[in-house]
Fold:
Amino acid sequence: MLRIVLIALVSGLLALIVPEVRKRLRQRALKNIPGPPCPSFWTGVSKQLHNPFAVEYRERVLTEYGRVVKLPAFVGDIHLAVSDSLALSTLYGKYRDAFDLPGWHSETSNTVFGPGLTAARGHQHTKQRKHLSPVFSVRYLKDMVTMFNQVAQELSETLAGKVSKDGTEVEISEYLSRFSLEAVGRTALGYSFGPLDVHGTDYSRALKEFGPTLVKLHLWRPVLPWIKRLLPLNVLRYLASVFPWYPVRHMQAISDNVYETSRQVLRRKGELLKQGDAVMRQEIGEGKDLMSILLRQNVMGLEGERLTEDDILGQMSLLLLAATDTTSASITRVIQLLAEHQEMQETLRRELLDATTHAGRTLFDLDYDGFAKLPYLEAVVRETIRMYPVFYMSNRVSDEDAVLPLSEPITGTDGKLISELFVPAGTTIWINMLGSNRDPAIWGPDANEFKPERWLAPLPPTVAEARVPSIFANMSTFAAGPRSCIGYNYALTEMRIAVAHLVMQFKFTPSDKEIVWKLGGIVSPSVRGSKSMKPEFPVVISRV
Structure:
C-alpha cells in the first residue's frame, strides 16, 4: 500500500515538474530580452513586483525598459511585459482564443466570488459576456445619470458637514469608497447600503480589505488549482478556517460576507421581479438598475443559455468589488492631481459654473451626453486614467506556442535586433498598460507629464498611427479583446459626475501628510508610515 502511495506521489510530482522544466528549456531565446536585474534564481523579481510597496518599482520597470520587458520569475521561469501595439494586436486577434487569464487567476476568482466573468473560461465566458454586454450599454447608462447625481449630491452634503469655509483636513478616501459602493448599489443592484455619513458596514469593510489581503496571498495563488483538485470543497473550507496564516482565514471571511450579501440582494430582487414592473418602479433603482435589466433579459433567454443563480451571484460579487475599488481610486487620483494643480482645478470649476449656474441650470439638468461633452472635465478624466490606470498590467497565458511580431525591432542584451517574439506555451505575458499609456513614441516627449490640455487639441498623429488595441481613446487602460473591461462606460460616467459635483462645491488643497500609492490588488493611496490596510487620502477641503 505504501509503495502505491509513493508511486502516486512521485508520479504527481513528475507531472508537475516535467512540463515546467520543458517550458524553461524552450524559453532560452527569451533570456536575450532586456529587463531588470534578477536578484534571485528562486523568486526572480516576483517579490519586487508583487508587494504593497511595488508601485515605484513597477512604474520604473514598465516604462524604462522598452516595449518588451523580461521579468524573471520563479525558479528560472520568464515572464514578458509587452506594450508593443502589433504584438498585442496579434495576441488579441490571431491568438484570441489561445491567450486567456492564467488558470490560477480564474480559480481564485471562482473560489472567492463564484463563477463570475473573470472566473469563467471558454464557452462559459462567451455566454456570460453575451448576457452582460447589452446591460452595460450607453442606452441603459443614460437612465442611471439621475441616480449617480443623487448619490454624488449626498456625498457633497456629507462632506459639507465636515468642512469649514477656511478649510478642514478630511480623510476623503473613506467617503469616496462609500460613495462608489452606494452608487453601484443603487445603479447596479437597485439596493442601498445606507447613508454616506455612517461608518462602513461589515460588507464595505470586506470589499476594502480584499485587495490588500489578495496581495499577501499572491505568491501562493498558483498552487490553488492543484489544492482544489486534491481536496473536496468542504474539506478545503474547513482547512482555510483553521489555517494558521491570518490572510487565508481573512480571505475566507471576506468571501463569505460578500457572497451572503449578494445572495440576500438577489433573492429580494427576484421576489420583486415576480410582482411586476409597477412594484419595481417603487424600489430604489426603479427597475432601471443593471441587475433588474439582467434578470428580465435572463428570463426571456433560451433554455440552456440562461445564466444560473450561481452565475448571477458571481457577477454581483465581482461587480461590487471591481466597480467600487477601481472607480473610487480613480476619483481619488483626480482629486489629488487637482489639489496639486490649482490652476487646473479653477479651470474645471469655471467650466462647470458656465454649464450650470451661469446658464440657469444645475448639474441635475445635465444628461449623459451633457457630462461627456464638457471638454475640460473629459480632458481631466482621460488624462488621469491615461497616466494612472488602476491596473498597471494584466496577465495572459496561452496553451499553445505563439509568435508575436513587433512593430519595431528591439535590441537584445547581445546587441542583436529582435523583430518577433517566440512565446512557448505556458509563458506568462503581462499586458503592459502603463508602458503603452506613457510611451513617448506614441504620446510625445511629454508623455510622462499630467497635461489635460493634450485632449483639447488634436493628439499627435503618432497616437492613431500606433494602432494601440483599445476600447477607449487609444489607451490601454481598459485592455482590449475578449477580456476587456465590460463596464468602462459605467466607470467613466460615475467618475465624471462625482468629480463635477465635488469641484463645483469644494476647493481641494494638499495635506501636509505624505501620500504614498500602494499596491493592494489595484493601486490605492495611503499615508506614509500608516499601518492601515484601507486606502487613506487626507486632503484639505474648503467650501467654494
